[in-house]
Inverse folding.
């Protein structure tokens, strides 16, 4: 008994070390030098640009805080698999220390093939990433995507159109180069080029080919991240089906859209796939004008808000709101490929994909204004405990419309006061990269032209209302 009591436990030793560090934090300290090892391709200035906090530190606490700051900055560059920082006594003695930084670089070339899930489609993707291209943490990312977009309702085809277009194939190719300014991951410049062919044959009787370039600057602001940029897209609406409506035919042909855009986002959710607490918000604004190049003229703003809260005993509630408004300028008439679409298992459940809003015949025309809101209750499933499978109860509402006379108060009021709505129940399953929902849906309110679906609906995606 006496021998056991005379030897401190590991917990006691850790507590003593912690107390010693806390008591010594105000002690005067300075950094004499910083030594780096392990770098192969990375230029020395990448490290020296991050070392400012070391040389401005005057106490032990300051040096320890600077070590964490430098570690985080280098790790977020994405070019190192390991970043270790240690302190050594300086040969000059006194209160000076030497900082020893050891890094291990990630492989420069990374090739990935696999399946990715978006908000309304599944895709096969091949991507190539080249890291640290010139030694300054630059990256080049290229990808090729072949996607199949489907209406995920588990019901049989109800028209010749459904039978003919059981799925819509799309392809996309992109090449993006990114560079953190001053080797700082909080300030990144990106330029990219790309081409895509997206089929809307099933919903709107056309295929859109888009070729263009983008340039973006991304940074942090006190509440989250900010992005500003320029894009120029040559758009071609073509390959119309034989029964395409006149509204779709009037949008066919070539347009050149050049725009400035800005996005602010904030996300403190505990899980982006199936959150149980926290909140997220995003707002995006865009202005297109011929002075930027092109023939599309208009202003566009949209945003979304998500709130989650744990209720205890495995229950949680999530609420979401999305809205957007497109204002054409200088007499410009919006085209189908300018607008938003609404409806489907990841937006307003209980409706076909693109099933809410105005139509010409069987063609969904999209809308200049939309809004959608939803609330979901997630419950534990008996005998499964805290696993990835949850019970799900939901209610959704939303509206989408074309504002022929502009965003007038009566038109917007009608859009809000006469929504499409649905409710239902099912299960939600969290996977590593996506969420699957299987719900029995009951449409409660519909506007003229809406395509509702009573019964089971399957949704697979990342962002759900």
């Amino acid at each position: 008994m006496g021998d056991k009591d005379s030897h401190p436990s590991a917990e006691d030793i850790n507590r003593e070390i912690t107390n010693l560090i806390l008591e010594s934090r105000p002690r005067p300290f300075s950094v004499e030098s910083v030594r780096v090892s392990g770098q192969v391709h990375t230029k020395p200035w990448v490290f020296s640009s991050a070392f400012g906090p070391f040389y401005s530190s005057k106490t032990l606490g300051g040096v320890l805080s600077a070590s964490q700051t430098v570690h985080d900055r280098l790790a977020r560059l994405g070019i190192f698999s390991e970043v270790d920082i240690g302190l050594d006594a300086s040969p000059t003695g006194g209160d000076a220390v030497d900082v020893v930084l050891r890094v291990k670089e990630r492989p420069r070339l990374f090739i990935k093939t696999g399946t990715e899930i978006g908000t309304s489609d599944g895709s096969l993707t091949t991507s190539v990433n080249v890291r640290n291209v010139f030694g300054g943490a630059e990256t080049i990312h290229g990808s090729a995507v072949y996607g199949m977009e489907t209406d995920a309702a588990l019901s049989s085809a109800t028209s010749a159109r459904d039978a003919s277009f059981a799925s819509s194939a799309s392809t996309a190719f992109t090449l993006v180069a990114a560079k953190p300014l001053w080797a700082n991951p909080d300030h990144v410049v990106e330029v990219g080029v790309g081409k895509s062919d997206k089929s809307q044959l099933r919903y709107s009787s056309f295929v859109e080919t888009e070729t263009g370039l983008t340039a973006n600057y991304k940074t942090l602001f006190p509440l989250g991240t900010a992005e500003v940029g320029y894009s120029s897209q040559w758009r071609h609406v073509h390959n119309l089906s034989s029964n395409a409506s006149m509204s779709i035919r009037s949008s066919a042909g070539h347009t050149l859209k050049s725009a400035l855009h800005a996005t602010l986002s904030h996300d403190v959710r505990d899980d982006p796939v199936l959150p149980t607490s926290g909140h997220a918000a995003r707002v995006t604004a865009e202005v297109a004008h011929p002075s930027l190049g092109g023939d599309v003229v208009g202003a566009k703003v949209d945003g979304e808000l998500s709130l989650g809260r744990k209720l205890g005993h495995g229950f949680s509630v999530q609420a979401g709101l999305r809205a957007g408004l497109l204002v054409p300028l200088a007499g410009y008439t919006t085209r189908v490929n300018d607008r938003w679409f609404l409806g489907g298992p990841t937006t307003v459940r209980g409706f076909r994909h693109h099933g809410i809003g105005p139509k010409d015949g069987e063609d969904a025309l999209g809308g200049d204004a939309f809004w959608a809101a939803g609330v979901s209750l997630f419950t534990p499933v008996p005998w499964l405990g805290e696993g990835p499978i949850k019970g799900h109860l939901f209610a959704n509402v939303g509206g989408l419309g074309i504002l022929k006379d502009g965003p007038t108060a009566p038109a917007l009021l009608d859009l809000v006061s006469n929504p499409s709505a649905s409710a239902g129940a099912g299960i939600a399953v969290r996977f590593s990269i996506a969420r699957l929902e299987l719900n029995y849906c009951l449409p409660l309110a519909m506007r003229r032209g809406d395509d509702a679906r009573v019964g089971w609906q399957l949704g697979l995606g990342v962002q759900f209302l």
About this structure: Residues 150-167 have pLDDT under 50 and may be disordered. The two ends are 62 Å apart (CA to CA). Residues 109-461 form a domain with the Porin fold (CATH 2.40.160.50). Residues 191 and 457 are 39 Å apart (CA to CA).
